[in-house]
User: Fold these one by one.
Assistant:
Number 1:
Amino acid sequence: MVLVTLGAALIGAGCVAALAVWTEDFPPGPRRCVGCGYDMAALLESLRCPECGRAAVHDGELVYTARQMRWRLRAALWCGSGLVLGVLGVLTGW
Ligand SMILES: [Zn+2]
């Protein structure tokens, strides 16, 4: 039950972090390529980076800030590791 409890706590923390990222009003960052960081401020009509060729799915992807990306990564990491721990806890009886 220890692993299940720990897994549930991590999933809960991940959900809270994900909710915070979605609900918090982050100011948009400079328009940059997600792949290489190329400054795309002058390329308002294009979603494709001329430097590395990576295409953004939508315009909002180009203005994500590093802080947003860190919190998204944390949320995914916490939820994923919580899920793994929970499954291990159920399988092993811990
Ligand atoms: Zn690029």
Number 2:
Amino acid sequence: MRIRLLAACLIAPLAAAAGAVAAQTAPPAAPPPAPVARTELHTAEGTDFGTVTAFSGPQGMLFRIEGRNWPAGWHSVHLHTVGKCEGPGFTSAGGHLNHEHASPHGLLNFSGGPDMGDLQNVWAAADGTANAEVYLAHAATEGVAVDLLAGDGVTFMVHAAGDDHVSQPIGGAGPRIACGVFEAPN
Ligand SMILES: [Cu+2]
């Protein structure tokens, strides 16, 4: 017992000192977030559906959605692999980003998902506004780094319905209702 008490007496001040040092060593100031890409969303008929701004982080990529004129309710949003938005069905945008490598679709798919096009659902209010930030994990990781502006580009797609995050091929997301090709931010 005496040894334990002695040990406690020695360790406690050491721990306190270590805490004080840690408190004094603040991490270096991070640069403010700067967008890496931006897109304007439109329906096949040309209706303005708002904007999406992309930010790159140390582990992944964040998309800030500022939507307008969306039908009320849940909507799937995805990254599609070809930077081309041709109506009426926007099939020109191809399938999901990295789908051929990561395979099954679905953030909640325990059988091999998700692919790199899978994102969180967005809720649109009755007035048509849809404001959200959705996050693509691992988008900055070596081997799967996502460049929204490289090659034939990448599209941000809005679907008619929410994504169940499991079923194939696109989680019951329904038709593609608005599309935007990412461009360099102004
Ligand atoms: Cu999609």
